[in-house]
Amino acid sequence: MISRRRDEIAGMTRFDAIIIGSGQAGPSLAGRLTRAGMTVAFVERKLFGGTCVNTGCMPTKTLVASAYAAHLARRAADYGIVLNGDVRIDMPKVKARADTVSTNAREGVEKSLRKMDGCTVIQGHARFEGPDTVRVGDEQLTAPRIFINVGGRARVPDMPGVHDVPFLTNTTMLALDQVPRHLVVVGGSYVGLEFAQIYRRFGADVTVVEKSPHLISREDEDVSEGIRQIFEAEGIRVRTTAECIRLAPHRDGVAIGVNCVEGPPEAIGSHVLLAVGRRPNTDDLGLDRAGVEVDERGNIKVDDSLATNVPGIWALGDCNGRGAFTHTAYNDFEIVAANLLDGEHRKVSARIPVYALYTDPPLGRVGMTDTQARESGRPLLTSKRPMTRVGRAVEKGETQGFMKIVADAATRKILGAAILGTGGDEAIHGVIDIMNADATLDVLRWAVPIHPTVSELFPTLLLDLKPAGS
Ligand SMILES: Cc1cc2nc3c(=O)[nH]c(=O)nc-3n(C[C@H](O)[C@H](O)[C@H](O)COP(=O)(O)OP(=O)(O)OC[C@H]3O[C@@H](n4cnc5c(N)ncnc54)[C@H](O)[C@@H]3O)c2cc1C
Fold this sequence. Notes:
- The structure is a single chain.
- Helices cover about 30% and strands about 25% of the residues.
- By secondary structure, it is α/β, with parallel strands linked by helices.
- A six-stranded antiparallel β-sheet has the order 20-21-24-23-22-25, with helices on both faces.
- Strand 20 (about 355) and strand 21 (about 365) form a beta hairpin.
- Helix 1 runs parallel beside helix 9.
- The N and C termini lie far apart (about 60 Å).
- Residues about 1-5 have low confidence and may be disordered.
- Flavin-adenine dinucleotide (FAD) binds near residues 22, 60, 191 and 319.
């Protein structure tokens, strides 16, 4: 039976639920719990909306849009458009645009929480004092249900010289209101690659330093190579197999030792962005006092329903290590709410991996890579098509990249797909939907798509399926 009271017992304020962190799961969960009649204490230590709204998806995708506008303006003549004069970047205005998008979203989240019936917003850093008790400053809160949605922050790697030089992270990058002369991005994965292309298009010299032999090394090699080619065509220097990366002060900024197999041993940057992964915000949460277990990376251990080892405590979003995206954090909310309030039995393991890399052209991804599909030992069908043979891409003058699909030859179920090409982040949803419907590829093969679109090539791609390796 749910207590509807928020009352004081022995200096403690009791609620039906406490939510820590206003990321992508917490605010929506507060909405469902309060609508179910519960009292909720909502604790946020800094910016409402968390990473996505303030220092992640929203500001970066706003910058991606500005960078795309600059790129298209430089290519105007290709489309028969005459622009008189150079393309110049008004960086304070670019930044102001990104700030406005973030601020509006942040204020929206805060306002909705503050006016939510049954929700008490508390600003401050939450720390567990026991399995059902949390302290925020002088206030002690208690509840039979506690939901942790504390997200993560940029990881600062323990590389030689890292503390001898100024460096930027995704958060401080967004405070720049000038274009760096030469931006060196350490880390050739999702966050680093987006910033690299954005700032190249804003006019900076850009070098990407990556310790693996390939950019975004979790992807298939043709995807990594495709992105490398797109970057190099825009004048971005890519230094892979950069072993033993080290940083040192230099009269022109920062010297980044890269020890690559090829090329000079150093890159000299005016600014350095460290984009080498994220770490969960779990080290300052007092989890040990509640008895909540974490893994060796600090991620909170959860079961398939996102429950921790302590009854009554759940962990949602990036801090549980089961996803690293806004949509996975939001889906965590959906799973927890459905199981607690709707009598369902939703599981994280039922989630098909989906994501996009917002370079231009973007990479839209679903399911397995070809490499993973091969490693699974199944008989495979594969098909691939360059964007030069996609009418919509030709018409838009954006023909870099390719689209490809891999399926199980026995079950005729799609295992995965990638579109590195214009509109790839949207078009991939056709495949995402078929995979979620657990339908065979023949359903997509016989669908009638709209012409001209990138999606319309999926039936053709499926018609061209061949046994892998043939
Ligand atoms: C540069 C960048 C670009 C990105 N782009 C995309 C993208 O395009 N698409 C995508 O899907 N994902 C993207 N992501 C990832 C996405 O931002 C995260 O996966 C998502 O925000 C995770 O949300 P979350 O709910 O786990 O927590 P977060 O959004 O990180 O929020 C956690 C909140 O908890 C608060 N908090 C932490 N500790 C405490 C405490 N002890 N007490 C009180 N409050 C606390 C924090 O202040 C924060 O507000 C990007 C990330 C970065 C860094």
